[in-house]
Write a structure and sequence with these properties.
1023 residues, mainly beta, 8 domains, eight-stranded antiparallel beta sheet
């Protein structure tokens, strides 16, 4: 399956359109609504006039076949039906996405043939936009261009009149079927084109076709496209010499913005206030930062830049921030406060919130219970199973905790069937997950009655035994903390995300009974057991009533907790709940004890209670995150200034995630490092990794080579004399195969990638070309970096090796480009189709003995194949396992050593102990396409990097066994540390080498109480 991708294309309401340079469109009508478009109607993803509509006929078949002409271009279509959506004809975009020619019945299709394209002046190239869909969302299908791309989709055009804001593009060239309603075939040429809809799970068809020129015409050469000038009442043949207002520097609307700036900004040169928000275009600087009334930072094309319901001009007049929907941070939008008559500039002034009934059960997890977590209602304390962790909760407050499940055996059970025989119900909570969830992952619910969770990686589902399933799109990650809620009433069952209703179905109530308990995070939600969730959950509440939409929205926005409205009995600006959680008196505003008031400072850390509330720190703990820094010093700006203004997060002990506490980073021990930057000196070694080197200097020894490069090459980062050694005498040769689809996967010369035991610098990158076949075959002449046309070794010098490869395609995974290993396991040369192939031949290898590492895979896991080397006389079988959505070198590399055809999940193999100057390897196709991501040739014997290659731990015996690369007859000492700082404890200082590798152990755990251990082998002077 090719990468499942979809792109949301948002069009904002505006009184000006930047039209296509040249564009024509064809809209297909049905007999159910035959309203015709005219040539002045503006519509399409590229907003343009020039549309014509077909005749929908007198019945469903009347407009199913026919032809129509538009400006000399002819469209002929053949289908077996027409129909329409519920989008109506309120504007041109809804009109396009209303009627469609329909592929009715199994195996059916719709054909559209376009001819005479050259009759319309598109220029050399053009794009074709195909708008597709059906009257029912969720149907699969494909849209194809003859001799071109084929894109899959799941229909998503039934929007109730929501266009143009609901345009969603598919770019999925496999079987991913993302939600979408248009596709683009780009960079086309020629007089004719043919398009086809291939029916999938049910009927779908084509709403419209738009042909858009990609060439810019500018007759007067003033930098303003002719079509833009025509559409904005400017003369396309006058560059300003005839009338200055027609030229690039003209300003016909006298708003202080020149025509060229209006064009680039997308504003109307004939209207001082393009978006009619009572601000002139020249003050709406679109920087995203409000400075003043003459530099608002707002978008001149959006009347309400922060979408809070107030026009930008009204906000500037009020004094609120037009770029912040909640200027005073009280969780009520500026518009809501204006409507309610409260002060949008005062966080202590906010609208009244209607009370809600208390829940049946409410688990906040703030007690961090090891075996039991409290139900704040008191009746259903949750039993904690497995070993979940507690992490910072959704609010970020130091006193707010969430429960984090491991996706294997962690869950919480109410030990009661809470939802039995309910006539109404509501369930709410917060979720946060970065890992893609498996099918039938449970969030919370009661098996065989009300089941709620992730039915698959990209869909959230509410299922009830009485009304079936409601699905909404969600995932594969939560993208931070998200509020989720479901409810069941006589009117239906509903799903809410972040307070918005996203899905509904039939009524599920009254509910019958089930024998299962209400569970959270697994333990049986969709099934009797299992359904394990991998992520964090916070503040789960269950009601035996149906909350109003307003109440659910208020809980999601934070103005209401499941326990009721936010109260402030003493009116000191500190919510009662927060004061109670932090041992302050909610009925004393400081008059009795100053430490209870907003200016109090009970922990004497220099922050007032009000400042602690805003910072979400503890007013009773001077160091909320226990990192050795007072809360007042951790200013959370992200910029280190001094030890009293560290910029670090007062709620995170390790702000930059480098495993060093913030306090230890700012202490001169002996170096002060930046607690906001895991790599202070930018040498690609984290501050924690620089135990013996200077973490504030990229090149500790000043020899001209960075510390990380020296370590990777086996050089001494403390000895400047060896910095220049290497060039042409490296120990590894690596080639990274790129595709045209992953142009950012080129590895930099200083990026280290590969299996950690043999990771290297200076990977050779192939040219992925400009098409799927362009980089499929090549030689060292097609190496684009580090040195063009040369295969270098890991030192950067010419290896002298010649390489040739041949395949019939390239492709890439979804691993992305965020890390060197993700880049390495991205592009690949591909064996496409039944006769596909992928072979690589090396000649002139100078190493006397070496191992060959072959990294393989595909964009779809689970495909069988083989890696064969006739040189080595070995063949390893595999089941592809390289498409990870990212790539962590510590966990994601999986070895196959299978030579019996059992096809284990894997993504690399090793042909060991080779000695020939030539080496050949090939991929033998199995069940589907797969190919080679990269190949490494690693020299053996002298020169092998001195590194620990294996650490084995036996949990039953509590013993370790260590293996490292070594020199014959060398003596080694072995050290252990708990923190990478102190290495005082040596296990053995007289270990005699076993040869090229040395194994020591098994030996007892030297520090059984330590949470983590680090080992270091060191050469001694004895040989």
């Amino acid at each position: 399956m090719k990468a499942l991708t979809s792109t949301i294309f948002v069009l904002l309401a505006s009184s000006v359109h930047i039209f296509a340079q040249d564009s024509i469109g064809f809209s297909f009508n049905s007999d159910r609504d035959n309203t015709a478009m005219d040539e002045t109607t503006v519509a399409g993803v590229v907003p343009s006039p020039g549309w014509v509509s077909t005749d929908g006929g007198a019945d469903a078949q009347g407009g199913a076949n026919g032809s129509i002409d538009n400006s000399g271009v002819t469209v002929e279509w053949s289908c077996n039906g027409t129909w329409n959506t519920n989008n109506g004809v309120s504007n041109g975009d809804n009109q396009i996405m209303n009627g469609y020619i329909d592929a009715v019945g199994a195996g059916r299709y719709c054909d559209v043939n376009i001819s005479g394209i050259d009759a319309f002046t598109f220029g050399e190239n053009y794009d074709i936009y195909v708008y597709f869909g059906s009257d029912g969302n969720g149907r699969t299908g494909k849209v194809s261009l003859q001799d071109g791309e084929i894109y899959s989709y799941t229909t998503f055009s039934q929007q109730g009149g929501g266009f143009p804001t609901n345009y969603i593009r598919t770019e999925d060239a496999g079987d991913g079927n993302p939600e979408a309603n248009y596709a683009v075939f780009e960079g086309l040429g020629g007089d004719t084109q043919s398009i086809q809809i291939l029916r999938g799970s049910s009927n779908s068809g084509i709403h419209g076709i738009q042909i858009v020129s990609t060439q810019v015409f500018d007759d007067d050469e003033d930098g303003l496209p002719d079509s833009w000038e025509i559409n904005n009442d400017l003369d396309p043949e006058d560059n300003g010499e005839g009338d200055v207002n027609n030229g690039a520097e003209g300003d016909p609307d006298q708003d202080g913005v020149t025509n060229i700036d209006e064009y680039e900004n997308g504003t109307d040169p004939q209207d001082v206030d393009t978006d009619n928000d009572d601000l002139n275009d020249n003050v709406e600087t679109n920087t995203g930062v409000f400075v003043s009334a003459t530099n608002t930072g707002t978008d001149p094309k959006l009347e309400d830049s922060d979408t809070d319901g107030l026009l930008d001009g009204a906000e500037v007049e009020l004094g609120t921030n037009p770029l912040n929907e909640d200027t005073d941070g009280d969780n009520f939008s500026d518009a809501d406060e204006v409507e309610a008559g409260t002060d949008p500039l005062d966080g202590d002034s906010y609208p009244d919130v209607p009370d809600i009934e208390p829940p049946l059960a409410y688990w906040t997890f703030d007690d961090q219970g090891a075996n039991e977590t409290a139900d704040l209602r008191g009746d259903y304390n949750g039993i904690v199973y497995g070993d979940p962790e507690y992490v910072t909760g959704h609010s970020g407050s130091a006193s707010d905790f969430a429960i984090q499940f491991d996706g294997m055996d962690d869950y919480v059970s109410s030990e009661a069937p809470l939802l039995n025989e309910k006539t109404e119900f509501t369930m709410t909570g917060w979720v946060n997950f970065t890992a893609s969830q498996g099918n039938r992952t449970g969030l919370f619910g009661q098996n065989d009655l009300v089941e709620f969770g992730m039915i698959n990686a990209s869909q959230m589902q509410l299922w009830t035994v009485t009304a079936g399933a409601v699905n909404v799109s969600f995932g594969p990650t939560s993208d931070g903390w998200r509020h989720i809620a479901v409810k069941g009433t006589a009117e239906g069952q509903l799903i809410y995300i972040d307070g918005e209703l996203l899905g509904s179905g039939g009524s599920p109530v009254p509910l019958p009974t089930s024998a299962f308990n209400f569970n959270i995070g697994g333990g049986g939600v969709y099934d009797g057991s299992g359904n394990w969730f991998n992520g964090s959950i916070d503040d789960v509440a269950v009601w035996d009533i149906a909350l109003t939409d307003e109440a659910i929205a208020n809980i999601a926005s934070g103005v209401l907790s499941p326990g009721g409205p936010r109260e402030d009995s003493d009116e000191d600006g500190l919510p009662d709940e927060w004061e109670e959680n932090n041992d302050l008196d909610p009925e004393d505003n400081g008059d009795v004890d100053p430490n209870n008031g907003p200016e109090g400072d009970p922990d004497q850390d220099g922050l007032t209670n009000l400042e602690e509330f805003v910072a979400r720190t503890s007013p009773q703990d001077a160091d909320s995150d226990n990192d050795g820094l007072d809360d007042s010093a951790e200013t959370n700006t992200g910029t280190y200034v001094s030890v009293t203004d560290t910029g670090s997060d007062p709620n995170k002990a390790d702000t930059d995630g480098d495993t060093l506490n913030d306090g230890s980073e700012v202490e001169p021990n002996p170096y002060v490092t930046d607690p906001n930057n895991p790599d202070t000196d930018g040498d690609k070694l984290t501050d924690a990794e620089e135990v013996e080197t200077d973490p504030t200097k990229e090149d500790t020894d000043g020899g001209g080579t960075s510390d990380s490069v020296e370590i990777a090459l086996g050089l001494d980062p403390l000895d400047p004399g060896d910095d220049e050694s290497g060039a042409g005498g490296g120990t590894k040769i690596g080639i990274n195969f790129n595709s045209d689809r992953g142009t950012d996967a080129e590895l930099g010369a200083d990026e280290i990638a590969g299996l950690p035991e043999v990771a290297q610098l200076n990977w050779n990158n192939s040219d992925g070309g400009v098409g799927a076949q362009a980089g499929a075959s090549g030689s060292q002449a097609d190496i684009i970096s580090p040195v063009s046309g040369v295969l270098v070794d890991d030192s950067g010098g010419d290896s002298g090796v010649i390489v040739d490869w041949a395949s019939n395609g390239t492709w890439n995974t979804t691993n992305g480009f965020d890390s060197p290993d993700a880049k390495l396991i991205n592009g690949y040369i591909d064996n496409i189709g039944g006769g596909g192939f992928a072979t690589v031949d090396f000649k002139g290898i100078s190493f006397s003995s070496y191992d060959v590492y072959v990294y393989f895979g595909s964009d779809g896991n689970g495909r069988t194949g083989e890696v064969e080397s006739t040189t080595a006389g070995q063949t390893f079988s595999y089941n592809t396992d390289s498409n990870k959505g990212a790539f962590d070198p510590e966990f994601d590399y999986v070895l196959t050593e299978d030579e019996d055809g059992t096809n284990p999940p894997s993504n690399y193999c090793v042909f060991r102990d080779q000695s020939s100057s030539d080496f050949s390897v090939q991929i033998n196709r199995g069940s589907s396409n797969s190919g080679i991501h990269a190949i490494q040739i690693v020299r053996l014997g002298p020169g092998t990097p001195f590194e620990m290659t294996e650490i084995l731990y036996n949990a039953q015996s509590d013993e370790f066994t260590l293996t490292w690369n070594s020199k014959p007859n060398q003596t080694y000492a072995l050290f252990v540390s708990e923190d990478l700082k102190s290495w005082d404890f040596d296990l053995d200082d007289s270990i005699i080498s076993d040869g090229d590798t040395t194994t020591y152990g098994p030996f007892e755990n030297p520090m059984p109480e330590a949470r983590e251990l680090f080992f270091r082998a060191q050469e001694t002077d004895d040989e």
